[in-house]
Structures are given as C-alpha cells and as structure tokens.
Design goal:
247 residues, mainly alpha, Recoverin, domain 1, 13 helices, 2% strand, PBP/GOBP, secreted, odorant binding, toxin activity
C-alpha cells in the first residue's frame, strides 16, 4: 500500500509540475506557516494560529488549507491530503505514524471548510507530534537552522543571502527558490501567488520556464516575468524580500 501511495503522490506532483520533496525542512515549513499567517484579515485569528489554536471560522478554515498546500501535503488532483507525505515527515523526525492518519485520507470538495473538517480531529489528537514533525516550535526550528548554515538564516533578507550566489551561471536560482517561485528540483511552483501580476502573463511565463531544465528554469521565469511588467514584478518581489527577513 505504501508503494502505491508513493507512486500516486509522485504522479500527482508531476502533473502539477513541481516536486516539493519530503521530508520538509525547518526553512520550508517556517515559510509555509508564515506565508499563510500573512493572509489573516483579523488579528485575533493570527494570534491564535501562532499559538497553534485553530478555532472553527471561515478564516481558520482557509488558513488550514493554505498550510497543508504550502507544506506540500495537499493534492490538487482530488483535493485530498497526502497522508504518505505526512507519514514520511513523522518518520523523518523519529515519530511513530499514528493509525488515525488513515482517517484523513480520501478526496474532499476542495472547500476550505471541508479540508478543515477532514483534518482537525487528527490535528487536535496529534498537535504536539505535528509541531515536532514540522519544526513548529521556536526551539526545534532554531536548532535546525543552527545545524544548517548553508540555508538562508532567520533575520536575513533573500536579497542579502543570495547576493553573489549564482548556480552554474544561473543568476536568479537562489532568489527564485527562496521566493518559492521554483522548487528545490528546479521546477515551477504553480500555486505561488504574485499579487497584482496579470494572471494570463504569469501562466505564460510559467509554461515558458517549464520548457527548459535545471537552474535555467529560474532565470527564464524571472526574465519572462520582468519583460512585460517590470514594475509589478519589482514591487511584488520587494515585498516578499522584506517579509523574508521575518520568516
């Protein structure tokens, strides 16, 4: 069964065009949490989410779905939670995979509320283990970052960290990865938002970037996005760069 789940997960990811390797590391999970928290419209919910409290509300429903998606644990093909990815994250952190994880399996309508309802019982039962598995405490997160100096540190902007870090002649690989526009396997991330950027052009540039390989994907995507709407792109990436100092 596990082999079949892995194959299904792989196929779904390939269809979407990104890999989102598991297990996720502390940098990647921190980005997922912080990015979704920034979508909060009501400060009272933000404060609860930071404390891992998930009260039933429309905002929280969509926060939960956002987190599963940004952690790479949401399958857009059938709007299901990828339980094998979660199981792998648990095992990578020395945790037993709870039997209750199986209850999270299966498709949903894709609505924020249904994704929340599908997963909230598992979350409440396994809250401490989920926090540990996904580096959801400051102590565990800081410990990982201290052991991985090759990763962009907390408190440092992407622009600062990536300065001079070309990869095989690819000028934009480092920054485009940390902006989460491409993933660790040089594949375009299809769900990363660029607020205010014209959607048809964004999709055109993503398709153009997918036609190449390796770290050149990042450069092709960046140059395409910049060519027709340089002001939009500059403003969006500047905002993401400023935010990156605090995730």
């Amino acid at each position: 069964m596990n082999v079949l789940l892995k194959i299904a997960t792989f196929l779904c990811l390939c269809e979407l065009g990104y890999s989102w390797q598991y297990p996720r590391n502390a940098d990647q999970t921190l980005w997922a949490f912080k990015t979704c928290q920034r979508e909060a419209k009501d400060q009272k919910f933000l404060e609860k989410w930071k404390k891992w409290e998930l009260p039933a509300s429309d905002e929280t429903y969509c926060y939960v779905k956002c987190v599963w998606k940004n952690l790479g644990s949401y399958n857009d093909a059938d709007n299901s939670i990828k339980i094998e990815a979660i199981a792998q994250q648990f095992r990578s952190r020395g945790l037993n995979v709870p039997a209750s994880l199986q209850k999270v399996a299966g498709p949903t309508s894709g609505s924020c509320k249904e994704v929340y309802q599908k997963t909230i019982k598992f979350f409440l039962e396994q809250k401490a283990n989920i926090q540990h598995a996904y580096y959801g405490t400051k102590a565990e997160s800081d410990k990982w970052f201290a052991a991985h100096p090759e990763t962009k540190p907390k408190g440092v902007k992407i622009s600062q960290f990536c300065k001079g870090k070309e990869k095989s002649g690819c000028k934009h690989y480092c920054s485009m990865y940390y902006f989460r526009l491409v993933d660790e396997d040089n594949l375009v991330v299809p769900f990363r938002k660029l607020p205010g950027y014209p959607e048809p052009k964004l999709q055109e540039c993503r398709n153009k970037a997918r036609a190449t390989t390796g770290c050149k994907v990042a450069d092709v995507l960046y140059e395409c996005l910049k060519r027709d709407f340089p002001t939009y792109l500059s403003m969006i990436l500047q905002n993401y760069d400023n935010e990156s100092e605090y995730y």
